[in-house]
Amino acid sequence: MSTLLAGIDFEAPSDEVARLLIGVTVLVDGVGGRIVETEAYDREDPASHAFSGPTARNASMFGPPAHTYVYRSYGIHWCLNFVCREAGHGAGVLIRAIEPLVGLDVMRARRGLEAATLLGSGPGRLCQALAITREHNAMSLAAPPFELVAREGDVDIVAGPRIGITKAMDVPWRFGLRGSPHLSKPFKVTKPA
DNA sequence: CATAGGATTCCCT
DNA sequence: GGGAATCCTATGA
């Protein structure tokens, strides 16, 4: 069994999907850009929302793969995840940063004048730029308003520890496009992942 | 450039 | 009641 989308099998382990997503273009209502930073979370992962089993908040993480899991962060921001593994497993990939490509003016307007340059460099920022809210939770990535475009050619990927967590801080499940100016934070490692 | 503190909602203990 | 997969602004070096 597999759930293929943009050349990626979303039933694969989350760290593999997180790696494959680097370079993939994501559009929401025709606005978006290229994914340059992701983080993997899994069921047996103390830093994951899925660690303590299904709850009202993380229910979609236990739903079918290649669907979204959108949650409220720090009471202010929205964060976008892509569900992976088989339905019921409870794994996902946090989309942490995109390189803005399509609909720049729309994204700038959504982000506001003060921060118009940081359109997608951070999970909260990219959700604001793409107008992601709770309404986008548990939606299929294979149907509108979502659209994934497979990456072309090879990408140079770096890995490192995940950001903003207090558990399992030694697990190197943050992935990024090497040298991208659109990363939320730089990677310390400069060798191939 | 680095650090610090506040904003604000929802879930879990 | 506490803490969270964050972001923005202000302040001081």
Which fold name corresponds to the CATH topology? 3-methyladenine DNA Glycosylase, Chain A
Number of strands: 10
Low-confidence stretches: none
Count of the domains: 1
- The Cα radius of gyration reads 15 Å
Question: Can you offer a commentary on this structure?
Answer:
This protein is α+β, with helices and mostly antiparallel strands and 193 residues long. It has one domain (4-177): Methylpurine-DNA glycosylase (MPG) (3-methyladenine DNA Glycosylase, Chain A, Roll). Helices cover 12% and strands 30% of the residues. Strands 3, 4, 5, 6, 7, 8, 9 and 10 form an eight-stranded antiparallel sheet that branches. The chain has a two-stranded antiparallel ribbon with strand order 1-2. Strand 6 and strand 7 (91-102) form a beta hairpin. Helix 2 crosses helix 3 (123-130). The longest helix is centred in the first third of the chain and has 8 residues, at 14-21. The two termini are 28 Å apart. The protein binds a DNA duplex (13 and 13 nucleotides) through residues 39, 41, 47-49, 52, 55-58, 71-77, 79, 81, 94, 96, 114-115, 118, 122-125, 128, 162-166, 184. Its EC number is 3.2.2.-. It comes from Pseudoduganella plicata. GO terms for molecular function: hydrolase activity, acting on glycosyl bonds. Keywords: DNA damage, DNA repair, Glycosidase, Hydrolase. Belongs to the DNA glycosylase MPG family.
List the keywords:
193 residues; alpha+beta; 3-methyladenine DNA Glycosylase, Chain A; 8-stranded antiparallel beta sheet; two-stranded antiparallel sheet; 3 helices; 30% strand; globular; DNA-binding; EC 3.2.2.-
